[in-house]
User: Fold these one by one.
Assistant:
Number 1:
Amino acid sequence: MTSDLIRDLFARSLDNMYLRQMADATVLPSQIDAYRLAMSTDSFVVQPLFFPGGNVGSLAVHGTVNDVAMSGAKPLWLTAAFILEEGLKMDTLQRVVDSMASAARQANVWIVAGDTKVVEHGHGDGMYINTTGIGIIPQHITIAPDRGTPGDVVLVSGTLGDHGIAVLSKREGLTFETDILSDSAALNGMVAKLLEAVPNVHCLRDATRGGLAAALNELATSSGVGIEINENAIPIRKSVAAACEMMGFDPLSVANEGKLITFVPAEDADEALRVLQDHPLGRDATQIGTLTAEHPGLVLARTSIGGRRVIDLPLGELLPRIC
Amino acid sequence: MELGQLVQRFRDPDTAMALASAIHARSSRPARLMEFCGGHTHAILRFGIPDLLPETIELHSGPGCPVCVTSAADIDYAIELARIPHVILTTFGDMIRVPGSRMTLAKVKAEGADIRVVYSPLDALDIARQAPDRPVIFLGIGFETTTPPVTASVLAAETQDLTNFFVFGVHKLTPPATRAILSEDGVTLDGIIGPGHVSTITGSDAWQFLPEDYGIPCAITGFEPTDILRAIHSLVEMIEEERPAVINNYARSVLPQGNLAAQEAVDRVFEVADARWRGLGSVPQSGLIFRAAYSRFDATANFQVELPATREPPGCRCGDVLRGIIRPPKCKLFGKTCTPQNPIGPCMVSAEGACAAYYRYTVHDV
């Protein structure tokens, strides 16, 4: 399992106090008193390369910009490294790179360094991209996975499951008709507005692989708090819900690429919601739950019919129902 | 009407509350109910239905998980088939992680066997067409719901004159398995929540043997929370009034006679035989084998394998879970050595397995 590999191999061999933060971006000291640095890296191996609402390139920019932004940082610079399969069409590469340029411009970040390697035909799945990003955090902002506090309110910035379903709908063998688009987007603009209005945000996480379920479980564990969620409050597009129903997927475990989850002190909840909803990427922002001192590390939900279920850490690949 | 709206009607909280109240009001005597189908177990826990029921009602999950009931010997067989040079073994995703006597298909794949996950047997047919020089074997698990698509792929292979498409068929039949459970010592059941998709194929009439031979009521139902609550309410009424019958609460999908076209097609290609089930052992007349006329598609007739001795994993109580004798948390391995990341038995592997459902949706000591 990836998390075991990270814990038992990478983290053990590479162990240092910065790596131990285990957040979306690592916060680093800087020589300049006014701010700390946040740095993050991610590799993008999505199949297919082009999906409704985006492609591996725009995703590579959004993904790393968002990880850096989740530490409360203003993302500044990205690197982009490409591993290309021999025989990849030039036109494909051009479209991807143009997408990245456009995404970077819209997000107000610069791609300042890069690398390209070509591997044999049969390797590389067309194209893999790695992006590394760096940003600056003002000293008065302290967002960290362990800052969740009982009484905090859980907000999501919009509808869940869009990206994962959009990608799955195009994956070979699973094609089904849908008009769902990936929500892939750079969240740094919205985060900046949020922090301006509510500097005391405790936690931020983008709900990528593993969806809401993974993000909530990770934060619950890091902060040592329990989380209570109202399932009826979770915003999910009807088309996404329908696709999940048909395939037997849990929308709470499906990936997003343009949504964030935040824990804010109760007294700041209204203002935080107002700011998010004011932003084009946060129109459907809403409160979905609260943090509690009960059952630390456990995420419990009140189901749509008033029962109780655990929202567990999702494992591995989503597989469709058999019968 | 959009699919979303259709589904929402069956998840209406007010209806659910009303049904729960009605169940509370009506239920006075203990009622042990079994939901045969793994999909029902999953839905029951996913929506938190046990929280809404009175203490008189006990829900027990049954053997309705096609992955879970595939015996270790059959997994071993599939592993040996996958190891034959040039063979492409195609399978539903969950099967890859089910432990056989010694290993999983995933391990064999990692060692270099060509094992591919498909979402439907028709995908396996596509692979066979695209690789005419390689034998493509589909691991055919499942109950009455999955057999028709497998049959369709065999019939398509016949029409297309494919000579490299085979099925390793370990399909199972639910009514005989239900009889086997009811005939066992140690299991008393007062009612059965009948499988919705299986019944779509078999018809609700296929369950008449429950009231007639065993005096037990059966309520066939769908997978939405109000479907399940309505079925429980019907069962409670029939138990309180001592008038067992079969009630079809899934009329939007299930007819009394079922899907005749599917039944006829399956009967053309397959015939009934005894079958081995994980947990239940050998159950008479509970499985399907290829008819002689279609033996050229039968993997067991076309490939020779040597099977090592079968072994069930020590300590695994999957068999008892499948028979409704214990609930998953009562197994000593549950949540400790046996977890979804590291499953010892198949009930923890499959998304429809009872152990996996309990692990995922309920609070348990870790």
Number 2:
Amino acid sequence: MSANRTVQSANQPMEAQSPATGSRVKTAARLDMVSCHHCATLWKDVKAHDRCERCGAELHARKPDSINRTWALLIAACIMYVPANMLPVMTTASLFEEKQDTIMSGIIYFWVSGSWVLALIVFIASFLVPLFKLAAMILLLIMVQRHSSRGLLQRTKLYRVVEVTGRWSMLDVFVVSLLTGLVQIKGFAMVYAGPGIVAFAAVVVLTMLASISFDPRLTWDAMEYESRKPV
Amino acid sequence: MQEVPDMIACEECDAVYRRLALGRDEVAFCRCCGGELERDISSRRRRVLPLTIAGLFMYIVANAFPIVEMELHGLVNQTTLMGSVIALNAEGMPLVAFLVWTTTILFPLIQLLALIYLLAAPNRPGGFAYRPAFNLLGRIIQTLRPWVMVEIFLLGVIVAFVKMTSMATVLPGPALWALSVLTFLFAAVLSFDPRYIWRKPIPERGK
């Protein structure tokens, strides 16, 4: 759809207008401006609980209570991660046997039966992505709380990757829901959803909420903190 | 409270820039972190409404017909989108059923309807749309965006399909094709960010 897009990054940062201040670029927070989170309109002289006059969203310089909320959601997700991987996500009952599957045994089944591509897709979406997401978000939070200014660009990129990949863990939830809906032949073959899928869905939703409530601008606030430090 | 119409702040690192007049399909990126600041969508805007309406038709087909059909020992069973939600709910998984229902049925519908209203409303002869409703729908579209999971559901159908082939004969239903088309339409439609409906042109310098 956008094949003929040209990339342009020659914007003049505010630096050009202001004397060198230690930090590279002027941030909105430093200039006492607030950018609307929904329509990106920039406002100055904003009082608490003011609403954006353009789109009606509440204005705040940073997402409210970002660090605490993200920690709470992440800790809850870590707790749910254990049952999500231990408990069976579905039970397959056929004429002669009943088989219980966890997330991992489902992946192994694909691998053994020769569908390596699918085994890889499910392994990435259901196992690697949630683990990577938990680790990445904890790392981002700890570094924000320590006002670390190391690898700012890499941390921003890490956050972008977490935001894009996180949703794909829902894959296993959809697979289980489809199979329970489809395989309902009484006596011959039945598929039941197991308790593990509830915990797994909770992990996906909680980590998604955590990455939404995290404010990537907090990462860059370390620059401000550093420039204010007495030398 | 005062607007600063000729500047923009990066959403990811808060760096402030003077807005540049963008040419056709040009994108402005943040120099500091590489995040996207603004993009020109004038050429795309006209295409979004027909694509959204096509998406609505595909959505109806995807919901009305079965997604997959399976046959085992002469017994046939099939499921629709709603059918699997109902089956999950019947097995005592109301929360998971609710999650599947919202991400694959409810939110995509809200997204499509809200977008149609947003794109059609300003062109009405009576003047501009009812402002609070317009604003609310625009914000809803942005908030719901990560929770519309049609493309992930499609991949889920493929995985479930392969899983079943060893056990029974499986056939794709008409809804599966509609769902694939809907995935592409959503990808095109959701690249349209409602923030550009709110956007004002950059004021002339020196005024």
